[in-house]
Amino acid sequence: MPTGRAFWALDRLRYGLTAWRAKLESAKAAGRLTLWPYGALRLGNSFEDVLGARLAEFVELRARLREAGLHEPHLSGSGSAVFGLLGPHADARRVLDRFRGSEALYVVRSVRRGLGVTRQT
């Protein structure tokens, strides 16, 4: 979905990206707690609610990513990509080998400063 159309769909929900109360609760939690990746992902991505005709395709991709071994697959930002997390001792190569699909996959690892990105398929 084009980004402009995605923002238009969110505007129609009247609350913008995330409901006001959810924004307040997220800010409070971030201020007093360490926010772990899985906790951050549970905050959600409002763009997933406005995928329209692309929703079935997104749900199917999420299922394939989970089957391969990724946790919590979600849209990145307004939907330019879908990402998921690997567990601390997961083997990225095994996940890549198990993935069914033709989408390009990238392994991103945190490094001392920034990220290391490797295109895998």
Shape: globular
Helical percentage: 40-55%
N-to-C terminal Cα separation, in Å? 23 Å
Low-pLDDT stretches are: none
Highest-level CATH class: Alpha Beta
Question: What percent of residues are in strands?
Answer: 15-25%
Helix tally equals 5
Largest sheet: 2 strands, antiparallel
Give the CATH topology.
Alpha-Beta Plaits
Order of helices and strands: HHHHEEHEE
Write a short abstract of this structure.
By secondary structure, this protein is α+β, with helices and mostly antiparallel strands. 40% of the residues lie in helices and 17% in strands.
Characterization of the model:
This protein is an alpha+beta fold. It has a single domain (3-119), classed as Alpha-Beta Plaits (2-Layer Sandwich). Helices cover 40% and strands 17% of the residues. The chain has helices spanning 3-12, 20-32, 37-41, 55-68, 92-98; strands spanning 71-76, 81-85, 106-110, 115-119. The strands form two sheets. A two-stranded antiparallel ribbon has the order 1-2. Strands 3-4 form a two-stranded antiparallel ribbon.
